[in-house]
């Protein structure tokens, strides 16, 4: 199978991985609050369960990223990580107690650590100018899962039967459903995912060009060649030809064979790596802050939404699923727009637009959602506008910061650095639900901190705006000298 077909199938499989992660989130999130209530869990258990998923991913991400950087292999890492997704979702399906439910999210979260290896793989195998487009497509795949997930929930809520000692109902069925999907994905990865590198494309392209050159030389080759006149064949007697030329008083320059590229197979990508030099730079700190603050605010609002809709609008699983489905359509549209926009403007402009939208959203929620006024219709309109604005700004910030981060950090250690970036995001998704879970009855304090963090991030970006650009050269490309 040629390189291009392997590349297309591999990228398609990566899209499926993120699609399933989105489906899992959309299937479980609308029902986990009521699921915990059936197990007599306190309200803070909602924040604990959501945070447990992110906590284990926070720890696993850098480890999986380090593993992929050392081996330049991601397939076996993904297969290994998916085992935790399968086991964790089956534990969620069992659901004997609130503690088992908490542990199930902890185990399943380990599987998300493979995302750092995937982002490192994409960075190594995409050109810098195409990176925003590729990342936007991958993130849109996850949002497509968020869109499709609620549709599955509409059917899963109808389940009510027994499988041996296990009860399958609208609360436990999402775990069984996701367990089966992750098992199917294992077979897809086995047969449709390849660990190729950019050198594979170069070798294939050089091979095609070499064949074309050889064909042209064969067509233009004279009947009697120079080697035949000197009595030599091929390159065996090239030294003899040079000697005879010198003896006759004719000095002919013969180019030495090109030196082979230096062997870097066994060299560690972390040989000259310095964490302080890599991460304690102004532009890197700003992007990591953007990752943390936007995800903290997003997960805090997501944690708040389900209890809020139950309190003010008496929403159940069906209404929440429809709401997440509509949000999924909006986010996918946003990612498609960002994909188009990133080809025309710089990433820092996209990031600035996203921050402006996030600030507007937080101000709206602080004014209208902290203490809703008016009748049912007015309160529902305030809620819809607040959610719409929050979801609208997400694609701009997400794509811009991950694309910029991949360009200003070393390409050789992308798995590890992307793992650190995702761990910062994981820390935010831990603290966000914990912060919101304990303050669902005091929204002014909850939203006030979120507004303060956004204001801080905006100031940081304005001060560091000139530095938020990709450097001319991040790493010395391998094999440049030989190509010259």
From TrEMBL:
The keyword Magnesium does not apply. It is found in: Membrane. Pfam families: MFS_1. Residues 207-231, 247-269 are annotated as: Disordered. SUPFAM superfamilies: MFS general substrate transporter. InterPro entries: MFS, MFS_dom, MFS_Domain-Containing_Protein, MFS_trans_sf. Residues 10-466 form the Major facilitator superfamily (MFS) profile domain. It is a multi-pass membrane protein. Its main location: membrane. GO terms for cellular component: membrane. The chain crosses the membrane at residues 42-65, 77-93, 99-122, 134-155, 175-196, 284-301, 321-342, 349-370, 376-399, 420-437, 443-463. One of its GO terms (molecular function) is transmembrane transporter activity. The keyword Zinc-finger does not apply. Keywords: Membrane, Transmembrane, Transmembrane helix. This is Major facilitator superfamily (MFS) profile domain-containing protein. It comes from Onychostoma macrolepis.
